[in-house]
Amino acid sequence: MRKLNNRGFAISTLLYGLMIMSLLVVLALFGNLSTNRHNTVTFVDKVEDELNRLSVTNTEGGHTGGVVDAQGREYIAPEGGWYKIELWGASGYGSSGGKGAYVSGIIYLEDNDYLYFYAGEQGKSSGTTFNSGTTKGGGATDVRLISGDWNDTDSKNSRIMVAGGGGSAGNGGAIAGQGSSPGTQTVGNASSTGGGGYDGSTSTGGGSSYIAGYAGVRSSTGQTSKSFTIHRGEYNADGSMKLETFTPVIYNGMMIAGVNSGAGKFKITKVSNNDISNPPRRGSNPALNNVRYIRDCVTGSSSGTNVANWLEIQAIKDGVRQTLTYVGTSGGTLASDKRSIINDGKADAPGTYATINGSGEKCVTYRLNSTMNLDEIAVWHNYSYTSTSSRVTGHELSVKSDNGNWVPLRKVSTDTSSTGQQNEYETSDGIRYNTFQYDSTGALPEGNYYIFSSASDNKVLTLKQEGDTYVVTLELFTGEDSQMWRVYKNGSYYHIQNTQAQKDFIVLDSNTSLVYLNDPDFSANIQNLTINPLGNGYYTISPVGTSNIRVGYTSVTSTALYSLTSSSNHFQRWKFVVASY
């Protein structure tokens, strides 16, 4: 969409008038000095070009092709502040083509900062796909600091966010794509029919995604981010561009695999006027403050009840992966030559694990070089590119300061059944906790949320209207308002309200009754809910006055939401992810 920003036509017209008057004066005074006149015209051309570019800017859009996309869609920040960027990768060709990934995060932009959005083209039967380089693979959608052709080296190296495209048979993924031979952070040349991504893919798999400063990513420097030389719209006295060094850090990042069908798209929205040192919502989870030690414990995994695997543990502060030093284990022994696997920075390469064998709880502990307030901690146990069948059981992640007590980021689930002790399925995104989300071990705070199912990493509760009736379904994540839910209190009870329809959950105290929505009624018991924490980041939702009914769905292929007899299955557990600033 083309949109006037805060420097719209009114200001532009005034500045044009003043510029024309100034130009006439300068030309009159120096008309006989050809050299000076040349310099003046050159300078005026630069200013006029800036005014033209600043009057119109792209805040959202999708791939259309041709000259519109060739050099990237330009965005110029109208004022300083924090901006949320959202990207959707394109899907692969045909009915078997993988879906594109979604990524989002917030970044601080100064007045007049430039960004360039490259929306991926959907895979096609022949020819080269834009921002993929393959035939049937969908193009990645990315945002860059330097304009140029989509495959220009300098331009590609300036990418700060990438949403992987779907391959001909695998979804665009998180730090690694999905399917056969997918793209990772360092492997893949976008050849064959794979989806475009941070480093493409080499077969039919999906492309990988990237967010500067996100746990698990690897830039060309081997770290989670890198520095760039950029032009912020200012010029030197001789008319040359004034360049500055800029190290982008994107906070509260999120990656979701396999959600977008069709062409890639992008969106940027200002969310806060906070200064650069104060990202909005930072500190929402105080457990990540004053951290020196990190301990991760499990009782078993998909490999067996007496086996615990670790691929990677990472701690992030201001976009930088912090050095972790091995401290020790409990519940078993970790071979000395395997200890470095957990902190080698290679979360996108499953297959070689650090393993502890033995019954009961098995833990590894690592130490930071100093006590610090962290932005993110992420853990990878084991996962597969081609399936979502890897789980661990009895998982607990804790932190502590020097001489302090262990503080849980994730507790062992209070559901003591064998199913209840299982984690969600693990993917290349790992299991992560950041300072921008609330502590999910206790009572849920009021706020706006996306509500994810424990049984799916990419489906959320969604408003659906059927005639005059509003119902709730489970759908692939899109980020639209129909998927945002306001959680608020009515006395000691919760209400869940769709932010688009302004209507609240109604949950009947009977098995297999559809969950639907109606206008808020604080006297109606069927709208009063209990949202109970399981301690492991997930919650159950029940109508007030009953202990044997939960909100859930019936199978992996089901989309309708029901009130159901309580069960330990993953279809009745929910993760609340903060959706607004």
Structural summary, described in words:
This protein is mainly beta. 9% of the residues lie in helices and 36% in strands. Strands 29-30-35-33-32-31-28-40 form an eight-stranded antiparallel sheet, with no helix packed on it. Strands 3-14-5-6-13 form a five-stranded antiparallel sheet, with no helix packed on it. Helix 1 (9-30) runs antiparallel to helix 2 (34-55). The protein starts with a strand and ends with a strand. Residues 1-16, 25-41 and 51-55 have low confidence and may be disordered.
Strand-residue fraction? 35-45%
The total of beta strands comes to: 40
Structural class: mainly beta
How would you characterize the largest beta sheet? 8 strands, antiparallel
Low-confidence stretches: 1-16, 25-41, 51-55
Give the fraction of residues assigned to helices. under 10%
Q: Which geometry do the CA atoms define? A: globular
Query: First CA to last CA: what distance?
Result: 23 Å
